């Protein structure tokens, strides 16, 4: 379904395959992967560890070239081009020598925004995500969850239309993770961006996404596409509903089968 920005997909990955060579041995990592993200849509990829999810993100971000297939954004072929997306990597990559505010400001600097305006926006958002008072702190002074929120803000305030989030909560303890999921859900529902989100947490994917691509084990390919039917705004209670639990069970079953198949 075309979104508000016209008939183009925010992202269209078309038939992407990739192999790596190491000491003449070929590892096939991605096999004919196609997926789309519409403008202002939240889409997730779930798949077993090592199935090529981060590699796909690197390809979308132009850091790696695919062996076959294309990456298109807003109707343009951007395969191999950098700078088209905002990217939040698996580890919160904040610059340790910059304050939290200056880390978040980086997005505005890249956009070429006037400093005062960018600073005002950063302050506003830092407050909103519970980091008010930490503007002048350095990353090491913050908890993992707070660092992730700052890294997320930096990605959110970046000029690119599409955000890629690579397992942003994987390093957090269970409770913080749950808080962060709800925080992200609320923030995104208020400020919709086009998001492609990687996780291997099924509950997280179901809570946040409009659509989920379930990947096979390596070489990663699209096994199932799930349209997540829950209306928005979604609230935490959703995860206790019967429909949610049924869908979760179904996805878990697929993942288990896939794990069993690939470890045989
Ligand atoms: N630059 C690279 N060179 C060689 N092998 C790589 C490279 N990047 C990733 N791989 C391999 O590709 C496979 C998929 O890795 P990755 O994309 O990180 O999976 P995931 O993010 O799904 O856990 C792994 O076997 C990994 O060792
Ligand atoms: Mg990864």
Coarse shape: globular
User: How many separate domains make up the residues?
Assistant: 2
Look at the structure and give the CATH class of the largest domain: Alpha Beta
Order of helices and strands: EEEHEEEHHHEHEHEEH
Average per-residue pLDDT, rounded, comes to 90
**Order of strands, widest sheet:** 6-7-8-3-9-10
Largest sheet: 6 strands, mixed
- The portion of residues assigned to helices is 25-40%
Q: Roughly how many Å is the radius of gyration?
A: 19 Å
Count of helical regions: 7
Give every kind of bound small molecule, once each.
Answer: adenosine-5'-diphosphate, magnesium ion
Q: What can you tell me about this protein's structure?
A:
With 264 residues, the protein is of the alpha/beta class. It folds into two domains: 11-84 and 162-263, Rossmann fold; 96-159, no CATH class. Helix content is 35%, strand content 24%. The protein is built from seven helices and ten strands. It has a six-stranded mixed sheet with strand order 6-7-8-3-9-10, sandwiched between helices. Strand 9 and strand 10 form a beta hairpin. Helix 2 (100-111) crosses helix 3 (115-128) and helix 2 runs parallel beside helix 4. The radius of gyration is 19 Å and the shape is globular. The N and C termini lie far apart (39 Å). The relative contact order is 0.17. Residues 1-5 have low confidence and may be disordered.
């Amino acid at each position: 379904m075309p979104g508000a920005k016209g008939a183009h997909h925010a992202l269209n990955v078309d038939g992407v395959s990739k192999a790596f060579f190491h000491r003449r041995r070929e590892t096939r990592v991605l096999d004919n992967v196609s997926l789309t993200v519409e403008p202002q849509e939240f889409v997730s990829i779930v798949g077993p560890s090592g199935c090529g999810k981060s590699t796909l993100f690197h390809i979308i971000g132009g850091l790696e070239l695919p062996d076959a297939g294309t990456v298109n954004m807003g109707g343009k072929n951007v395969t191999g081009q950098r700078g088209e997306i905002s990217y939040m990597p698996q580890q919160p990559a904040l610059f340790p020598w910059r304050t939290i505010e200056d880390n978040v400001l980086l997005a505005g600097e890249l956009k070429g925004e006037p400093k005062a305006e960018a600073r005002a926006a950063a302050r506003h958002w830092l407050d909103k995500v519970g980091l008010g008072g930490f503007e002048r702190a350095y990353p090491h002074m913050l908890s993992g969850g707070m660092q992730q929120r700052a890294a997320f803000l930096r990605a959110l305030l970046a000029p690119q239309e599409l955000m890629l989030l690579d397992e942003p909560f994987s390093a957090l303890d269970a409770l913080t993770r749950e808080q962060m999921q709800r925080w992200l859900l609320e923030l995104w529902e208020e400020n919709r961006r086009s998001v492609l989100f990687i996780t291997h947490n099924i509950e997280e994917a179901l809570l946040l996404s409009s659509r989920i691509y379930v990947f096979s084990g390596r070489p990663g390919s699209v096994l199932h596409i799930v349209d997540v039917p829950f209306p928005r705004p979604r609230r935490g209670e959703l995860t206790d509903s019967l429909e949610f639990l049924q869908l979760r069970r179904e996805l878990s079953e697929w993942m288990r089968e896939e794990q069993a198949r690939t470890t045989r």
